[in-house]
Amino acid sequence: MQTIIENLQKHFQVVSYHQQRENLGFLIASKEVAVGLITHLRDYEGFAHLVLLTAVDWIEDEHFQLTYLLHHPEKKVDLGVRVMISRENAEMYSIHHLWEQARTYQRELREMFGINFPGSPDVDKPFILEGWEEIPPYRRDFDTKEYSEKTYFPRPGRETHDPAEYMKKKLYPNE
Amino acid sequence: MTKLNDILSPFTAWKHVVREPVTIKDPLNREAADRYRGFHKNDISECIGCGTCESICQNAAIDLVPVDGVETKDGDSGLRPRVDYGRCCWCGLCVDVCTTNSLSLSNEYTWVDEDPDNFRFVPGAENKSWDNREKGYKKPGNGYELYSPVRESMEELEPEQRDQSFIEIVQGYSKEQAEKEADRCVECGICVATCPAHMGIPEYIKAIRNDDLNEGLRVLYDTNPLPEICGRICTHKCETVCSVGHHGDPLSIRWLKRYIADQNPAEEYKKILNTETLQPTGKKVAIIGSGPSGLSAAHYLALMGYQCTIYEKLPAAGGMMRFGIPEYRLPYDQLDKDINYILSLGVEIKYNMTIGKDITLEELNKQYDAVFSGTGLHMGRSTRVPGTDHPEVYQAVDLLRDIVLGNEVPVKEKIVVIGGGNVAMDITRSLARLQKQKFGKVDMLTTSLESEDIMPADREEVIEAREENAVIDPGWGPVEIETEGDKVKGLHVVKCLSVFDENRRFAPKFDEEQKKFFPADMVVESIGQGMDLSYLSEEFKEQLKMDPRGRILVNDDFQTSVDWLFAGGDMIQGPDVIHGIANGHKAAMGIDKYLSDK
Amino acid sequence: MGKEYIEKRTVISPEGNPIEVDPLKDYFCDAAPKSCKSASGIIEKFANWARSESLWVLGFGTGCGAIEMRPLMTPRFDAYRFGIQWRPTPRQASVFVISGYLSVKTLKRVVRSYEQMQNPKFVVALGSCTINGGMYWDSYNTINRLDHYMPVDVYIAGCMPRPEALLAGFDKLKHIIREGRGEGANKYAENFDWYKGNQKKIIKDWDMPDYNW
Amino acid sequence: MGTIVTKILYALLTLFIVTNYGLILSGVVRKIGARVGRRHGIRFYQPYIDLIKNYTFRTRITHGIMYYIGPVFRLTGGIGLLLFLPVIYGSPVFDNFSFAGDLTFVLYFQFFGVLGMALGAGESGHPYSALGVSRGLAQTTAMELPLTLGVLALAVQYHTLNIHEIVAAQQGSILHWTLFTNPLAAIAMMLSFLAMMGRSPFDVVLAPQEIPIGPPTEYHSALLGVLQLNRAIFPAAKLILFMNLLFGGATNWGELVIKTFFIYMWSVFVGIAYPRFRVDQSVRWYFGIPLLIGVAAILVVKYF
Amino acid sequence: MSKKLLKWNEDRTLFPEKNSEGKIDVDYDSHKFMKIWHGPQHPGITGNMSLELTLLGDEVMDCETHVGYLHRGFEKLMERRKYIQCFPIVCRVAVPEPDFNEYCFASAMEELAGIEVPEAAEWLRTLVLEMSRLQSFLAWIGGQAGSLGQGIIGQWTIYLRDLILDRFEELTGGRIYHMYMLPGGVRGLLPDGFRERMTQNLDDIDKFMKDVKKVMFDNYVFKKRTVGMGVIDPAWINPFGITGPNARAAGVAKDVRKDNPYLKYPELDFEPVVGKDSDIYTRADVRRRDLLMTVDLIRQIMAKIPDKGDIRAKTPNVLHWKVPAGETYSRAECTRGEYGYYMVSDGTEYPRRINVRGPSYTHAVALLEKMIVNANIADVAGLMVSLHTYPPEIER
């Protein structure tokens, strides 16, 4: 693992590297070099298997984190490439030419996070949702409970009591 | 050939045609496995309505609702969980986390209904066919706990180290320990009602977990201006009802409170509590006695902008907290930390001022807009058995006060203490320390009317006293103190069978046959205290309404029948610190109301 | 493909005039369902007996409950012996088993399948999800209560209900039908506007005809 | 005049008995199939209840006139087939309208059902129906070939096109059965019989896993009831046909029940063991061995 | 590349040429094509998804998968649940084998929180995972035979699966959703008599699987339908992210249990089952042999599993368990391939993000769309089942 990283540092600017466990590491790459870096990892280092591609919404820092998790089938190690992209007009270069399955991931990210991947096939087609009109649901600022309660008629007749409050009401209402 | 085989071998399927079908004959009455997670059962008498099941349920399937026949009382919210089977997923986490182990799942699983609103019920309270099922999912054993039932152990001085000096025994929690202990809390809030001051216990424990001790201190001061003190010597009624304590050790709420207070430096209190500037109202209140109720009242009055003056008979503030509680339990510097903060809010204190002697109550009334009296119980009660008037028979409160004041305390080689309360333990252990210092060995014997299991003293006090080589021999009623001239020979006792009658009234029964004699050089009585109302003039006493037992009657605002006089603390309710604090707080609010209305 | 094929298209009539054709109207009926009167007396009783003893279940696994359908069809529980059989098309089925949660996307198909079934039709709802949202009570994509969108005859509690509970549910359904209370289809027809309103409220992408039986 | 009326009444009686027999047989056979799967399966009278239930549906929708006619067509095929079969040999009551040359008639009726389905299902407009019908027609055509060759071989062998006479020729001993006198034709016809009964491996027409459930996808309520009724009559008629042609016919109902049951079981026996062919595979398969056997049967009766 | 694949390709040369995207140019205006929807209400579709097929006669010219019918927004729901509250809902991601979700979730969380699971719990987890594989395989085999029109196999195997579900019920208290492996450990030891009953069931399964082999695999028609059908080219494995039996049938010995061993697998003796031809038949056979291997593994586990011991590590109070900030990925080998949970914690009581990587995600969308083109419509169901996809883990 260490040698791979050292190798990588010769060619690319790897911002930070964090070894999570023996066979799993995460590094941060900038948006511009990411696709080149991933291509390099796939073609020269042997990370042939794209395990997953997903996003994390760091709404406080106003960016999305894209995680490309790559697996090395021979060395049995995983490397996560983290790319931070701005939440405003979120857009990332597509990698559908590297892995066929990436287009599914990118379609999903487009729909659930609103991250665009220009050039990815069918990326604008609805994937999971149908007739969705709100902000992309996996974004942190979308409140699913509130949406559900306002849309789907929860069955009435439920009420609960907080034990402490209730005991106050019963035992010492005036204090 | 393989091809022919491929054509023929599938027909082997037909051999099954003659076999008996494996179908379950009567699937409607088939019982599920022993551990099956079926419908809920609740032992409603065990359940305390703590709501932990509700808070762990990710489906919001559980509501806490009042149930007929279940009363709200200390340690029982009177609520019971109602399960919505339109939400439940039968994960059983509610069973795993149930603090009383009252909740369980039966292995019944069939519930069919036409009306979707029927799928809600209070297990245990509404009769269901599976209520008597033995089988079903219960909380597993073998180290399976969702929260720790074991209390984080507290560092204490070893008995050998502590029995010579008055150094504080309990060391207090470190950060890790406190956070671990705070982590055990299930945030049910059952304790809040039991705490006389109704402190925000779950909130300040949460503050510890979040490592936000400033917030913790703010929560403490909302209801309790003496956290250092309470964090050490509170009778912690809250811990007796702690829901975690039903199966496991209760949370050490007291030590956690102490941890918050300890960790916040005194000089930053004002900043943390945002009391650097107060809005004065220009009104003045006199407070008699600087015990917990007096200090508490002073604190909240000061926060409300009243100018408070405390009149204290003794040369130091704190009342019973200073003069009744030995230093090894409550070091003076910690006592001073709390008191000094209250004084820093602009509260004035006048020492060595005895009401009735140096200044009368009527004069106070003229100088101040209202008066609060928290004079406490400072007169030791006597057993009144023959021999109690002997000079070598002492009162515990007097001795304790003398120890603090630095007066010379008579210490003999062989001492017997009568009493089973915390004061008895205090005097036992204090005298034991003095014996050790003086004679190099301890020979203390403490006896009480109550047998061991109903002794009013805290358990750990008894245990620690024994660790310090004092003998505790409870369950004996004193008959006579044998004296010989100016010397005491010892104490004659008989076996006490029961202390209270069936109406919980004090009516001890003795077995005269079983007798014992405790030889002693000195006897200390510690069977309770009474109040000293000598500072009230006779004509004033006549204006005050008293109850038949001689206590001053107060209303909910702790206002006496004389409208400018408020009273609280041990003399009204007690005796313990936390009641005093609560009284002081309420009285302060009563005074505020009274003065705002005026 | 997109939605072109369901959008209105313009065709030239033989006279040479362009006419706008709504393809949805092309293929489907344009009348709301009507409540059907039941036959009288003994005939209806006999019919109800036959209906109750021949429950044809629509094989539409809408949620996780579909996993318990296989055991029901197979030797262990063998629902066939109780007259319960599975049909692959809604036209021939009389019982719709809603096996758990319904996402909005599925609800649309469920409504369509339900409407394609013939009167009398019965709905069995499995599990918490159909009663009050179940595990997914706060999900943005699943409905909370089924009875807002179609009449339900029997609810079976559980998550998932075991096959035995399902059989008990079918048993109950048989009783209901025999007592002549299985009139969900008529209820649907009578409260058609209400049900349609509720459905349309959450199915934003309403690209199907209102009536499709 | 009187004779034709009694003839019709007798035919209706036959129809009634055969229909009930067909319904019970389909129930019993499904039970036996279920036993292989180690379960009890449906109640044997379940087909009756299903039938009643389908007729008691309150609503039905229409896709056009052919949609109605389709099932009726099909039912006509079933009843027609039955009516020209001598059900019980030698019985004046259950001899039906058997006449000289009824064999050709029967062969035609046997195709009639599929055509009826094609008309009706085509009208219903469902793509699965269309797929199913095209599959059905393709497979029936392929299956007809060995069947027709076998029947021709029989015609050549017995020098008649009258089923009654064919049955008569087989009386006397079990060894007079066509099965033993002309085994090649019997094999060719029994292989065709598999596809005729619509069971695995030749059930691609209905194939619930692929085109649920083929032609009758859109049929429901009473129309499905008609189809169901036909599913009882048609197979029973086919069974009687095969019994007559290959297994010496029946002289009483008991014999009929036993013989037809075992003929039916042949298709079930194979059906349980195999998955289904794709339609191109089944067509190819029928153009292979069964066709050769059929040709061989003709050659054998012609030249030996 | 095997000869069979070549033969299959030859067979298909009569059909329209594929374009660079591997699809056929469909000209709808030519009216030669028919569009049908396979699903969501369709008995041939596993679970609830649909295929939009464009047909030319019986042949599929174009396929588009539509998923999302079972979307519940798990990943969103988990963000607003405490860690322990996620535990009951993760198993719902994949109904046929919920335990892999539980394991991956628990192990990812344990890794971030630095918790060591007791020995007994590790063994029990291994047992439950293998039992889960077993029952899933059994259900699948019935599905594969059923998709080709042979119902009898399903009758047998679902019955066998029921036996395993009975054992699950006994051990975990749940029939379908076990909710057994909660973070920190498991929820119970082996009940009394479990071993005997389990051994009995395994023997039954062994015996029945021999029949299944005879009836299903040594079957002329079955071979006719499956040999040479739906070949996955080994070169597709990485671009499509194919894992599990689908990859192993193509001769690539991918098995997480061997590659990145977890739980007690290093102490068990097994070799990944590998096939050669990569067609439907091989995939089915690989799964059948994998099933038998699982039976053997369970026997090995039963021999080693302890009867006593702690079942759960000491953890913080689950009501407010704060997992230290960090991110990790934990994986396990399920019946369909690599199952994984990607967990990001921001140090609060709630997970920041959990992403579920189900093997069907890659198999059922991109791969299926590619493979189905040029197939006969009658083969669609068989092909889909042979990839062993399960829709809920695609859309979650």
Characterise this structure.
- The complex is a heteropentamer of chains A (175), B (598), C (213), D (304) and E (396).
- Chain A is of the alpha+beta class and 175 residues long.
- Chain A has one domain (2-171): NADH:ubiquinone oxidoreductase Nqo5 subunit (Beta Polymerase, domain 2, 2-Layer Sandwich).
- Chain A has helices spanning 2-11, 31-45, 102-112, 144-151, 163-171, and strands at 16-21, 24-29, 49-58, 63-72, 77-86.
- Chain A is elongated, with a radius of gyration of 22 Å.
- The mean pLDDT of chain A is 85.
- In chain B, the strands form 6 sheets. In chain B, strands 9-8-7-10-21 form a 5-stranded parallel sheet, sandwiched between helices.
- Chain B has 4 domains: 28-137, Alpha-Beta Plaits, CATH 3.30.70.3270; 159-272, Alpha-helical ferredoxin (Fumarate Reductase Iron-sulfur Protein, Chain B, domain 2), CATH 1.10.1060.10; 284-377 and 531-597, 3-Layer(bba) Sandwich (FAD/NAD(P)-binding domain); 379-529, FAD/NAD(P)-binding domain.
- Chain C has a domain at 57-202: Rossmann fold.
- In chain C, α2 packs antiparallel against α6.
- The longest helix of chain C is centred in the last third of the chain and has 16 residues, at 163-178.
- The mean pLDDT of chain C is 82.
- Chain A: One of its GO terms (molecular function) is NADH dehydrogenase (ubiquinone) activity.
- Chain A: Residues 31-147 form the NADH:ubiquinone oxidoreductase 30kDa subunit domain.
What's the gist of this structure?
By secondary structure, chain A is α+β, with helices and mostly antiparallel strands. In chain A, 30% of the residues lie in helices and 24% in strands.
Produce the secondary structure layout.
The complex is a heteropentamer of chains A (175), B (598), C (213), D (304) and E (396).
Chain A: H1 2-11, E1 16-21, E2 24-29, H2 31-45, E3 49-58, E4 63-72, E5 77-86, H3 102-112, H4 144-151, H5 163-171
Parallel strand pairs in A: 2-5
Antiparallel strand pairs in A: 1-2, 3-4, 4-5
Chain B: H1 2-8, E1 40-42, H2 52-56, E2 62-66, E3 79-84, H3 93-97, E4 103-105, E5 112-113, E6 120-121, H4 159-162, H5 175-183, H6 190-194, H7 201-209, H8 213-223, H9 227-233, H10 237-241, H11 253-263, H12 269-273, E7 284-288, H13 292-303, E8 307-311, H14 320-323, H15 332-344, E9 348-350, H16 361-367, E10 370-373, E11 377-380, E12 393-395, H17 396-405, E13 415-418, H18 422-439, E14 444-447, H19 459-467, E15 471-472, E16 476-484, E17 487-500, E18 506-519, E19 522-525, E20 529-531, H20 538-543, E21 565-567, H21 577-597
Parallel strand pairs in B: 7-8, 7-10, 8-9, 10-21, 12-19, 13-14, 13-19, 14-15
Antiparallel strand pairs in B: 1-4, 2-3, 3-6, 11-20, 16-17, 17-18
Chain C: E1 9-12, E2 18-21, H1 23-27, H2 41-53, E3 55-58, H3 69-73, E4 84-87, E5 95-98, H4 104-116, E6 122-126, H5 127-132, E7 154-156, H6 163-178, H7 184-190, H8 192-202
Parallel strand pairs in C: 3-4, 5-6, 6-7
Antiparallel strand pairs in C: 1-2
